[in-house]
Amino acid sequence: MAGAGWSRAAAPARPNFVFLLADDHAGYVLGCDGNRQAETPNLDRLASQSVRFARHYCNSPICTPSRQSILTGQYPHASGVTLLSTPLAEDRPTIARQLRKAGYQTAVFGKMHFNRPGRPGMFGFDTCSTEDVVQRDWSRQPAARAVPAGIRTKPPWRPFQDPARIWLNADKLPYPRYYEDMKGTFLARQAGQFLEERRRDGRAFGLWVSFMEPHSPYDFPVEDRDHFQPGAFPPPPLGPEDAPQVPAVFDQLTEVDKRGIIAAYYTSVRFMDRNVGVVLRKLADLGLDRNTFLVYSADHGYFLGQHGRFEKHNGYEQALRVPLMMRWPGHIRPAVVRDFTEHVDVPATILDMLKVEPLPVEHGQSLRPYLEGRAAAHPRDHIFSEYLETEQAYVRTARHKFIYCSGRRLDWYRPAQPIAGRWRRLYDLQEDPEEFHDIAARQPDLVRHFEELLLERFRSTHPEAGKEPHGLAAEAALDFYVRPRDA
Known about the structure:
- There is one protein chain.
- By secondary structure, this protein is of the alpha/beta class.
- The protein folds into 2 domains: 2-381, Alkaline Phosphatase, subunit A; 383-482, Arylsulfatase, C-terminal domain, CATH 3.30.1120.10.
- Helices cover 30% and strands 16% of the residues.
- The chain has helices spanning 2-10, 41-48, 63-72, 76-79, 95-101, 131-139, 164-167, 183-201, 255-285, 317-320, 345-353, 368-371, 444-461, 474-482, and strands at residues 16-23, 51-57, 105-110, 127-129, 205-214, 292-298, 324-327, 335-342, 382-387, 392-397, 400-405, 423-428.
- It has an 8-stranded mixed beta sheet, with helices on both faces. A 4-stranded antiparallel beta sheet has the order 9-10-11-12, covered by helices on one side.
- A hairpin with a 2-residue loop joins strand 10 and strand 11 (400-405).
- Helix 13 (444-461) crosses helix 14.
């Protein structure tokens, strides 16, 4: 109560907001999640000051749909963005627009996957320094300190053109810059300059800092090149049913390659964590942290050899579970929540906590009860996610994982032996936490139950639900909904 009283007496009535977002940061690569190899001291410290949602899931295991779902509060099939290349429609309501209407000074620095050039005011961001703008401004910086010729650095990133071991950085090569000259460091400093301006003018702000790490090729600076040893990272074993479905692009990876890839990813996470620390320290140094509601999360997770994969684009646990932390000193008591939560819950929570008008369409529910130390009135008993690039949808409960696929589309991660036609998979996570043994054929009643759960989500949220043909069997109805309308 003393902390809450301090906030009311000393802070302006309107709290600030910061969203720290990582790219491809899997929920299991965090020290606070129990991973002893992950070096994430700043995120671990943040978790100790936050409510950490330990079973938080993205609503799509691919960048663009997931990010626009967070921004709009709608599932990808409703936001109009289900494919990687689709730009978000310019007239979509967003949480940034809601904050701006409420008088906040809004800004974004970093990767947002808008698939259009950044410009002031776009989607409600007064300052819109997205990928193209960051690249332009970073390239105009003074000449970087030269890297000695004897130090090997990574080549330009050319996925699916170079062999996978090259674009996945199996040699664990650094980006050809020192820490002070890295793009991620520049991004953190830009955010710091924005915070300094707000400290001077006293305006309430909504700031997004969207890091580009640890996305492949897992960038990190030259001085970090020897920090982790690949030998410490044995790749996970394949399950008995995995081999035919491993994407063919990974076929030539050796054990040594896989160790190097995993070590490179962990090094990139460590680098990203350092820049998270830059932003957190700037907030504290400016005295802004006490009145700032802060969220940390990632767009989706990532495979580091599980099921033979080094990507996302799938419904297994490693691609769907992501970090989520929420901090507001004096208002939120640190805790760990193990109820299910989804990305669409995040925008509803942000606007609720800031007492800003909600989005006109909200598919999530506010997590405010958890932040206030109360039980949720209606905790989720399952999560929903979708990957419509390949017409897949997923349900996860405490006991089971269900995957449905129409079989009509393949993405660029083509398996060695594609399955012909519609397919389903069901895993008993209590008996089979690695999701190795499909029991769908032995549990037809459970399959029907999960198909109905998927249909319930689609029918209650899909903008074309009224066009579903009458009399369809469950699988045909699901095929109607998993088709990407933005294809």
